[in-house]
Amino acid sequence: MIDFLGKTIQCGCGKVHKIPAIEIVCGRKLGKLSDFFDDAIFVADQNTVLLAEIPTDDVFVFTGPERVMATMENVQRVVDFLKGKNYRQIVSIGSGSLTDIARYSAFLCKVDFSCFPTAPSVDAYTSSVAPLIVEGVKKTLDAKIPRKILIDTDVIVNSPIDLLRAGIGDISSKVTARLDWVMSNFLTGEQICDFVWDDIKDLLKLIMKDVRKILQRDESAVQNLMKAQLISGLNIAITGNSRPASGADHLISHVLEMYQECRGHLPLFHGLQVAMGTYISLKAYDALFQDLRFKKSQILLKDRKKLLVDFFGQQIANEFEKTYLNKKRVETINVDNIRRRLQELYLEYRPILESSLLEMGVRELFSRYDRDFVKSAIVVSTMIRNRYTILDLYDQLDILDDFCDWVTEQF
Ligand SMILES: [Zn+2]
Ligand SMILES: [Zn+2]
Hints:
Blueprint: E1 8-10, E2 16-18, E3 23-27, E4 40-45, E5 59-62, H1 72-82, E6 89-94, H2 96-109, E7 112-117, E8 129-134, E9 137-142, E10 148-152, H3 153-157, H4 161-188, H5 195-198, H6 201-209, H7 211-215, H8 219-239, H9 248-262, H10 270-289, H11 301-312, H12 314-325, H13 335-359, H14 362-366, H15 371-381, H16 390-396, H17 400-408
Helix pairs in contact: 1-2, 4-6, 4-8, 4-10, 4-13, 6-8, 9-10, 9-15, 10-13, 11-12, 11-15, 15-17
The structure holds zinc ion (2 copies).
Residues 11, 13, 15, 17, 193, 195 line the site of one zinc ion.
């Protein structure tokens, strides 16, 4: 499925990349999972436990009516369950959250991790990190690369339609993430790698052209989406951070997710929120290339702080305020030069990126939110991580406020 697994590559970026040697097996009507994973404990929820033949003794099932969230409490439940038991590996049966829970549990228990993805909804499967909510804050923690990934085509093709939509959302963000990365490399000198773009760029185009087919459950289109998710996760492992997979698109989605999670509410699926973030980021690049002139007005630190407190409470607000104040600022900004640097990439992907987001129904997602809330979420998204994006450029140019007004009228 992926030909560079296990290879060592002397990369043009100056680094030597060791690609993890994950065993990826794809098939259908697979039978007993214990034939593929020996000495394993399976971690599932009430829905995913029905999707494969799992030994009834060696399984931990999250029960309860609600979707399982990737929180440290849920990791702790798995870890507690495993106390005094001796398994060689933890195998997740599920999509993003269950995979992240199992991956981090395996890391804490010092055992192997493998997975059985049930939807092509996220790039979490092959990645080395686990985004988890720790005391209300989403943190990206180092965790385990899977030893083996077993994919049942029938299962992923028949995954819930919102998980297919989410998969399109999450994969579309790789384009805006790349634009942000190239821009940051140009403006701040941040290190960049081309290998992790070259290995996915053609597949991204194919998927964005095939959105309708994916939503109609066309087998090869869904398989391509799954393959791209696996490569995207590998890119995170290769680079050692989520830069190739996440820019302003993900920072916005993190804010939307954290806002709900802080209140004990269930957020939308990750990739659905990412689709919204990607659309906003795309519109920011559109404005850059159309040379739209926004009104200059500075967002005062006290107003920012108030937003942070409203969103996440005092304690988390303090942490993010520090993050914001420590952010990289660029000394001189020449917008013409930025456009020149990004032009080829932007023009190549812009039309299919917008059409793929519209086809997966991004407008319907925005209709669920209040306009002022989305505006605030965009501003907050510039304060939660030290990662330079198009929105930081707008912030530094003092046009973020007017951009937010403009972009929220575009939905
Ligand atoms: Zn993602
Ligand atoms: Zn490289």
